[in-house]
Automatic annotation (TrEMBL):
Phylogenetic lineage: Bacteria, Bacillati, Bacillota, Clostridia, Lachnospirales
tRNA processing among keywords: no
The protein's name in its UniProt record: MATE family efflux transporter
Source organism of this protein record: Candidatus Lachnoclostridium stercoravium
Cellular compartments per GO CC: plasma membrane
Pfam families according to UniProt: MatE
């Protein structure tokens, strides 16, 4: 049992800043590696195939996020439940949670595979995808969703590892996946000239690699969260608690992703060059957004463990440490991206029109990422206490309802794509303000008897 607890890396004792930082680093590096191989798809496709193929791959991101958003919410719910039980040292509850979580992931993975393959064309047409990009977009999406099962199961496995404080494992497996993806991209696209199909196949195989490695580790680790593949099934009590916490996050992710699909549809209306430029920059955007969400995930785990152990003072201090780290990161990276915007965009293409769209997006996004870091940092702290509904309401109000209102009523007042880009910082400001108000006035730190 002593070895098991050591491997669980509980964060209920010791330096708060050091624990959150060193727990965040593997999450950040892992997410950046995942973004790296997604970006590699776009860079290699843009340079070897052309701007239309770049548009096809880049514009698919919003739709992919929409379709897998609910499963990501489920992994958050499972992580919160597992971290609280680990903090409370309830081994049986931990076991029920991890086996139920993987069973839920398997079911969702199968549903998404079938749905993604059959509905890709319909959804892309609904998004106003231009005819000169549609064929490649459909090809990329259908092949991508052929392997999405591995993505869903890996995310759930990573959620279990992160809940136990073992985020270094997630980083290691994503490193293997990143190398696999980039090598296969170069082979399938650069040598065999398979275009967007090669990019999708490379992504599928790399996701399978990370999924299999994570499951092997979970099956072998000597810890409370060890998985017996033969025992994977849905335990009613664990499933209900995962759903209670994960459902609001899943709905939040889906609805926000839906608003991003609407934004992408508005961008599509400006033509394939706008699609390519915006899609390319959104790959770079991930290098800023994903560390912010990594800090949020870290503080969710930290809060879950300490809240489960009844250590409210550590929860409060962890929140402030997370906010400080997010602010420093987003301000520095925002400055760097703006300074080197032109060479960054030229990694994807030499088409000056495409580059200009990407640089314009940078000017609207980069100075304001700090607001997003505050919103996500507070949301992660609140969510770790098991109160996932208030962050959901704030996120839906600011990142979905407001954006839909903007696109419907404010965007027609603009005669350029600037009207699409400016909705991002304005919605971040609204979300940050609402989240600060709830964190200040809400009763999210109250421990239930």
């Amino acid at each position: 049992m002593e070895a098991a607890q050591k491997k669980s890396n509980l964060m209920t004792e010791g330096s708060i800043g050091k624990q959150i930082f060193f727990f965040s680093v593997p999450l950040i590096l892992g997410n950046l590696l995942q973004q790296l191989y997604n970006t590699a798809d776009s860079i290699i496709v843009g340079n070897f195939v052309g701007s239309n193929a770049l548009a096809a791959v880049g514009s698919s991101t919003a739709l992919i996020n929409l379709l897998i958003a609910f499963s990501q919410g489920a992994s958050v719910g499972a992580g919160v439940v597992a971290s609280q039980y680990l903090g409370a040292k309830k081994r049986k509850r931990v076991q029920d949670t991890v086996h139920t979580a993987l069973a839920i992931a398997a079911v969702l993975g199968i549903i998404l595979t079938v749905g993604g393959i059959f509905f890709s064309r319909f959804l892309l047409i609904w998004m106003n995808t231009p005819e000169d990009v549609l064929k490649d977009s459909v090809t990329y999406l259908q092949i991508y969703f052929g392997g999405v099962f591995f993505n869903v199961v890996y995310n759930m496995a990573a959620g279990i590892l992160n809940a136990a404080g073992n985020s270094r494992r997630s980083l290691l497996y994503l490193a293997y996946a990143s190398v696999t993806n980039i090598v296969l991209d170069l082979i399938l696209i650069g040598i065999f000239h398979m275009g967007v199909a090669g990019a999708a196949i490379a992504t599928d195989i790399s996701q399978m690699v990370s999924c299999v490695l994570a499951l092997i580790f979970l099956a072998r680790v000597n810890a409370d969260y060890q998985v017996d593949l033969r025992r994977i099934r849905i335990h009613r009590g664990a499933a209900l608690r995962i759903i209670r916490i994960g459902l609001p996050t899943g709905i939040q992710n889906m609805v926000i992703s839906f608003s991003n699909v609407l934004v992408q549809s508005s961008v599509n209306g400006f033509g394939s060059a706008a699609m390519a430029g915006f899609g390319a920059y959104m790959k770079i955007d991930g290098f800023n957004i994903l560390p912010v969400t990594s800090f949020s995930m870290a503080v969710t785990t930290f809060t879950g463990q300490n809240f489960g152990a009844g250590k409210i003072d550590r929860v409060k201090k962890g929140m402030w440490v997370t906010l400080a780290m997010g602010l420093v990161y987003t301000i520095l990276t925002g400055i760097l991206l703006l300074t080197f915007s032109d060479p960054i965009m030229r990694l994807f293409t030499d088409d000056q029109t495409v580059i200009s769209y990407g640089e314009l997006a940078m000017k609207y996004f980069c100075p304001f990422y700090f607001m997003l870091s505050i919103m996500h940092g507070l949301a992660g702290s609140i969510r770790g206490t098991g109160k996932s509904v208030p962050p959901m309401i704030v996120m839906l109000t600011s990142l979905c309802v407001f954006r839909i209102f903007w696109l419907q009523f404010i965007l027609p007042l603009f005669d350029a794509i600037d009207g699409v880009f400016v909705v991002y910082p304005v919605s971040w400001l609204l979300g940050m303000t609402l989240m600060v108000l709830y964190a200040w006035k809400g009763k999210w730190l109250k421990v239930r008897a």
